[in-house]
Amino acid sequence: MDLGLQDKVAVVTGASRGIGRAIAETLSREGVRLVLAARSTDLLLEVAAACPAGALPFPVDLRAEAAPQALIEFAVARFGGLDLLVNNAGATRRGDFLQLPEADWADGFALKFFGAMRCCRAAWPHLVRSRGGIVNIIGIGGRTGSAEFAIGGAVNAALLNLTKVLADRGVADGVRVNAINPGSVETDRLALRIAGYADQRGIPLGEAAAALARDQGIARFGKPAEIAAAVAYLGSSRAGFCQGAILDLDGGQTRTL
User: Given CB 3.0 to 4.6 Å as the disulfide criterion, which of 142, 213, 234, 247 pairs with 157?
Assistant: First the structure.
């Protein structure tokens, strides 16, 4: 299916690995001109080299207040405009609510929420001109609370609400804003969770992976490419009637309405 993304311009944050890398490679195969942001210069260069249509790396720490504006200005200066912003950056620490320090809460919101919010704000006037869109990669923890995911759940819930807020504004401004909630996806982060699960129970890694999937009520874990394919669709004109949509890609883990 031709998504009509050839020569569009996109910024992808958190693009150095996992889901972000898959998004970059998928969009590049569709002919999108890319600016890729993350903190790791070496990994970004590797991802950029793997993109079929090429990509420009922009190493940056989006926790810094001025960084999102600099990222968007770089993309517009190099390509003359912006059609799509994919907010994928940010991970939060799991743990006991009573033991999580203030610094972890501040860091969790600094990158995943405030980084995304500032990227949206900086990109908005350019997306109005191109009648472009935003896709926020958030997570199912924002919909279903979990005792070990207090920070992530709070951050994700805030981003889900921001998605709806911006979608409401986008109706008038001509900017489409949607979000994807991945469940457990086969990334380095999940591998660490599986390893911890195996250590706690004294079982092999393969057995731990299967047991963790069963605990979550799913048949298998997701693949980064599956999230990336949904981003390409939501970022294209094929999804022109999607506004404020929240797509759960979690293998059926979220069972609430």
Answer: 142
Contact 95, 63 (CB under 8 A): no
Q: Strand pairing of 84-87 and 133-137?
A: parallel
Rounded CA separation 106/108 (Å):
6
Q: What is the C-alpha end-to-end distance of the chain, expressed in Å?
A: 31
8 beta partners = none
Phi, psi for residue 115 in degrees, rounded to 5: -60, -45
Read off the pTM: 0.96
Distance CA 4, CA 242 (A): 16
Q: What is the pLDDT of residues 93-107, one digit of tens each?
A: 999 999 999 999 999
Q: How far apart are CA 242 and CA 244, in angstroms?
A: 7
pLDDT band of 53, cuts 50, 70, 90:
confident
Element spanning 56, H or E:
strand 55-59
Q: What is the spatial distance between Cα 94 and Cα 109, in angstroms, rounded to a whole number?
A: 14
Hey, what amino acid is at 80? G
pLDDT digits 0-9 by tens, 64-78: 999 999 999 999 999
> For the chain, which domains are there?
9-183+222-242 (3.40.50.720)
Q: Model confidence at 1, in pLDDT bands (50, 70, 90)?
A: confident
